[in-house]
Description:
Elements: E1 6-15, E2 18-28, E3 33-38, H1 44-51, E4 59-64, E5 67-69, H2 74-79, E6 82-85, H3 97-102, E7 108-109, E8 112-113, H4 115-129, H5 144-157, E9 162-166, H6 174-189, E10 193-197, H7 201-207, E11 210-215, E12 218-224, H8 230-238, E13 256-266, E14 273-283, E15 286-291, H9 298-306, E16 313-318, E17 321-322, H10 328-333, E18 336-339, H11 343-347, H12 354-358, E19 369-370, E20 373-374, H13 376-389, H14 407-420, E21 425-429, H15 437-452, E22 456-460, H16 464-470, E23 473-478, E24 481-486, H17 493-500, H18 505-514
Parallel strand pairs: 3-10, 3-11, 6-9, 9-10, 15-22, 15-23, 18-21, 21-22
Antiparallel strand pairs: 1-2, 1-4, 4-5, 7-8, 11-12, 13-14, 13-16, 16-17, 19-20, 23-24
Amino acid sequence: MEEYIIEMIGITKEFPGIVANDDITLRLRKGEIHALLGENGAGKSTLMSVLFGLYQAEKGEIRKLGKPVKINNPNDANALGIGMVHQHFKLVEIFTVLENIILGVEPAKLGFIQKKAAREKVMSLSKQYGLKINPDALTEKISVGMQQRVEILKMLYRNNDILIFDEPTAVLTPQEISELMEIMRGFAGEGKSILFITHKLNEIMAVADRCTVLRKGKCIGTVNIGETTKEELSRMMVGRSVSFTVEKAKAKPKEVVLSVKNVSVASKTHKNLAVRNVSFDVRAGEIVCLAGIEGNGQSEVVAALTGLEKVSSGKIILCGKDITKASIRKRSKSGISHIPEDRHKHGLILDYTLEENMALQRYWQPQFSNAGFIRKRAVRRYAGHLIEQYDVRSSQGPVTIARNMSGGNQQKAIVARELDKEHRLLVAVQPVRGLDVGAIEYIHKQLVASRDAGKAVLLMSFELDEVMNVSDRILVMYEGEITGELDPEITSVQELGLYMSGAKRDRAKENENAG
Length: 515
């Protein structure tokens, strides 16, 4: 009989109105990378939270090396060698990197924290695993990819040998994802055991040994990756075949909806401009994608368009009107819908209900307001309609607190609200981040439908497949400038990569000067 390092047997976890985990059994071998796959809200994060001691199951048993164990809290989990990198990082932003890594297990002598010894151990682990960090940097000022390294080092510092990664690549760039895959392979090679929650089938096929699939709280089965396909995994996950290609007719661009003229935006992290003299148009009936490696100015362009950042110079024209200095609400009322990059910071009020978040952009309209009072029944009916149309899953429907929903369903709620709102321009930033293949297929169809209905769509994405499949035109940004305009139908991924890395910037400038 094979001995497993961790077994979760017959786990059932319930919340008000929903059975999140329904009699699930999962077995993890020593030294394997075991993927956990499922739709948004299928119960993956809940199951791992039970293993990590954040939740207590109503039924079932957890065993380590064949012996039953009781995990009442994360300290119990750590004592058993279990560590977890959460989808939304659990870091104290005003602490330094070093302080976050050692938090809760600080080495102390006579009541004083021995930071020197802690620093030596952290830097040794950093060097050993290729996880470069600045231990003195404030956590609030480091990149998302760097924050993830901090979370991984937290696990290693505690000598964890069972590592849980909850959607670890959802907020990473392609380069950071490749680095993480290598790190995970290295961990497995050392004999550490990894549970890896993801929606990305390519990553599962590339790095996992086995995969357990959940659907609507139930376990569909466990398969060996060498004996399955992406198509079979997607069928197990959503219960039907899923198309991996975006079907769309050729774009028929019409009048200019958005005109960006010589826009520059200051950087928050250095003295140079984050965006330098950028100009482009987006027309009704087309999807234009801002592509590039993260940190090359795309986020700042979007922030300037949507009013989250002020421009240093230049103009932003929407439907012939100058909105350069307009407020965020005025831009929204003028016809901009915005699916933001950070769904927690700019997309939702986490302690509001789902229905309140659904009405955020429209609560003052006559449909939802009367004599200054919100018509709550109308808001609930509207939220119910969007929840059904976009398959937003939550334990208590419209009255669910947004914070208590899975990341993927939070994203679907934002997408539903912004697509349904009357708009001329849709600014979609990483719109399918954290979504399963079924939801990705649906959202991409909605973007194309928005285009075909005569809307202008500005997409920002780090996913090369999404850039190539969804866009009608690609604008590549490098070091704050647009270095190329490409047609996805005649451009290769390799050529796109050369523009994104800056290798083709000089050629683009030569062509521009010649024109």
